[in-house]
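Box 3.1 A note on notation
Throughout this textbook, protein chains are presented in two layers. The first layer is the amino acid sequence; the second is a token string describing backbone geometry. Keep the layers aligned when reading.
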Amino acid sequence: ICPSIFLTTSQPESMMKTLSVLHRRDFLLITAGASAVQKTFAGLLDPIKQMAGLMPTLHIAALDISLSPQEGDARTLYLQAVKDMLKRTQPSDTILLLPLGEQGQSSVPIQKFSLVKSGRSLEDERRKKEVVPHIETAARELLGQKARASRIIEGLAATRPEVQAALQKGHGVQLWLCSDVLEDSPLGRMASNFDKTQAERLLALVKQNNLLLHTPPADNSTRKAHIEARVIGAGGQTASVYQQVEAFWRSYFAASGITL
């Protein structure tokens, strides 16, 4: 059964003459052909289009290679997350693969893979089957490295140009953050004494240095960016530290306009 989507508008009935109904899997999307109606619903259907595979998406797999996560189980979990991410990709999607370790924002090595859409389903499927093993191998090689620091914030900031380019094209962005998210860098260290004051100070420093993954426009009328994030493997030495670590990252994502 296809879920129902009810849209209301104050536009005259004459503006609603041109309607197209697009079927994709178990989704029913109704889009208005009139430009005025399109402006009325600008961005409203973007999340649904992305779920249905109709919107190109930038997938970012950020892999913690520091010694902070428990090496065996955590890295196996991260690799599985990459495989799960790849199952969700569609033709015309782009995948970024990057390590979170000792490198600062300007030196993070980012690997980029593109799933080119030909318009021929068999050809697109063949192309995906060729590219996916290369991405999995690259992820496995990254997870074999060991870094002495966790410059997570700067690693994510290094993807800003790609994120901005995707959003300007109206594409979706999905971040897969595979990490215990315990920042350990010149910016700050989420150690056993990490508290609310330090969390607030760190977030202020991130904003001051333009290190958010994305800075939403101040103009509320601008089409809202569609960015989602998944965090795989979050942790903390104690319950109180974990609480502050979680509070920091929730504030970071909110400030970046990202939906968890």
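The two ends are 28 Å apart (CA to CA). The chain is about 35% helix and 20% strand.
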